[in-house]
Amino acid sequence: MTLPLIVAITGATGVIYGVELLRVLKSLGQPTHLILSEAAGLNFAIETPYPLEEVRSLADVVYNNKDVGAAVASGSFRTRGMIVAPCTVKTLSAIANSFTYNLVVRAADVQLKEGRKLVLMVRETPLHRGHLELMMRAADCGAVILPPMPAFYHQPQTIMDLVHQSIGKALDQVGVEHELFRRWSGHGPAAARHNAQEAQSAPSVPSVQPVPPPAH
Predict the structure, then answer these.
(1) Which of 80, 129, 172, 212 is deepest in the core (most CB within 10 A)?
(2) Which ranges in 32-102 belong to alpha helices (H)?
(3) Which residues pair with 82 in a beta bridge?
(4) Phi, psi of 215 (to 5 degrees)
(5) Spatial contact of 113 and 75, defined as CB atoms under 8 Å apart
(6) pLDDT in tens, 97-149
(7) Cβ-Cβ contacts under 8 Å for 4 (sequence gap 6 or more)
(8) How high is the mean pLDDT of the chain?
(9) Cis bond before residue 86 (omega within 30° of 0)
(10) Do residues 23 and 211 make contact, with C-beta atoms less than 8 angstroms apart?
């Protein structure tokens, strides 16, 4: 049995990371349980053309963020881990301080206490000392702090290439195999030949098609 992966989308800018994460996981056959914060719903309307119903349809199970009695609120409900994409500083703060006032934070706290992977794609810049101390505190509790900082060694051609590289780094943390970006294999002539062969044998962009905008 494949254990589900919890995906939480909170109200930071960059909800596209959560959407693409769900879409990639669906294409890979990885079951997902989704929690949407109230502010995330607002950001979908601001940043994307995707209605919430479309986003919810990408997950196998969807929870109300106020439902602190949901399955994922208990450590006895087994999961593969959890990715918060994107993660607000408010959510980071609540997780770092075990202030489990909603299901996103409670589910995250469960991952930490059960020794499971919790990946926080924190979206904020610039960062003051308080932000950095919250990250350090969450990391001390076992969370993986993974801000979506795109790399360029794989020669991205589109914004979606950058999004997929950050998502791929998060999936690496929870052990989900993927081909979202070309991995670094060194430099020099031998590495160049390897990279060229890899580029010919596999597409640089995965076969995950974007959701078309809703008809008006």
Answers:
(1) 80
(2) 38-47, 52-56, 89-96
(3) 6, 118
(4) -70, 140
(5) yes
(6) 999 999 999 999 999 999 999 999 999 999 999 999 999 999 999 999 999 99
(7) 31, 32, 33, 60, 61, 79, 80
(8) 91
(9) yes
(10) yes
Residue that has been written with the tokens 């209605």 in this structure: 51
Question: 3-state SS of the chain: helix, strand, coil percent to 5?
Answer: 40, 10, 45
Q: Which two tokens stand for residue 186?
A: 């060194």
**Tokens found for residue 98:** 């075990």
Tokens of 39: 């502010």
Angle (deg, nearest 10), helices 15-27 and 38-47: 90
Q: Answer whether CATH 3.40.50.1950 is correct for domain 5-201.
A: yes
The C-alpha atoms of residue 33 and residue 181 are separated, in whole angstroms, by 25
Ranges of each domain in the chain: 5-201
pTM of the full predicted structure? 0.89
d(CA 3, CA 95): 23
Count of residues in the chain = 216
Contacts of residue 14, defined as CB under 8 A and 6 or more positions apart, other chains included, come to: 47, 85, 86, 121, 123, 148
For 71-188, where are the alpha helices, taking DSSP H only? 89-96, 103-113, 129-141, 159-173
> Nearest Cα to 9, choosing from 108, 71, 87, 92?
87
Q: Comparing C-alpha atoms, which of 63, 58, 72 is closest to residue 16?
A: 58
Closest listed residue to residue 150, CA positions, set 133, 135, 169: 169
